[in-house]
Amino acid sequence: MKSLLLLFLSIFSSVVLLAQAVITKNIISIDTQEKNAKTILFAKQLTNSSTSFLLKAKNETSKDYSKCKWESTLSKDELEYFVDALEVIELGTDFECSLFKLKYKNDKLNVQFNDTKCTSEHKIYYFQKSCKRELSFVLKPNQLDMVINKLDHALNDNQLAKN
User: Fold this and answer.
1) Which residues contact 53 (CB under 8 A, 6 or more apart)?
2) What is the pTM of this model?
3) Percentage of the chain lying above the pLDDT 70 cut
4) Tell me: the pLDDT tens digits for 5-52?
5) So where are the chain's domains?
6) Is residue 161 predicted with pLDDT exceeding 50?
7) 108 Ramachandran zone, left/alpha/beta (phi>0; psi -120 to 50)
8) What number is the average pLDDT over the span 68-75?
9) CATH number for domain 20-156, candidates 2.30.31, 3.40.50, 2.40.160, 2.40.50
10) Are 84 and 76 in contact (CB under 8 A)?
């Protein structure tokens, strides 16, 4: 009986020790300045074998809006494409691809990520439908420059410094 218990414990501990360690480092966090203000967070996630990027967003409950949360994982190529699009978009232009939509007018950049749904699992309005809001937010020019610089630096940084 003891040997069976020891065998089980040794297998369990080896599985736990061999599990991939995930290190996440925040790149930038921005509070948007819009009617439905959101907190947008970009983070770099490093596992033993790969690097990915997280996009997390949330807004707070108000009398007009319910609290929503969004989370999406981006590959390095997808984030590079997003940063390149942010760098080249000009005032008065639109850009659309399968990953996101950008619309730059009146000194505000509207960003909408496709295929992101609210993950709060809350109900909305009359027939208690689940929330299906996609992530969209507005960046001002100074925030746009900051996002481009921080994301570009994170893409070119091969090491993930510990906090």
Assistant:
1) 27, 42, 43, 44, 45, 73, 74, 75, 76, 78, 79, 154
2) 0.78
3) 77
4) 666 666 655 555 555 577 889 999 999 988 888 999 999 998 877 889
5) 20-156
6) no
7) beta
8) 90
9) 2.30.31
10) no
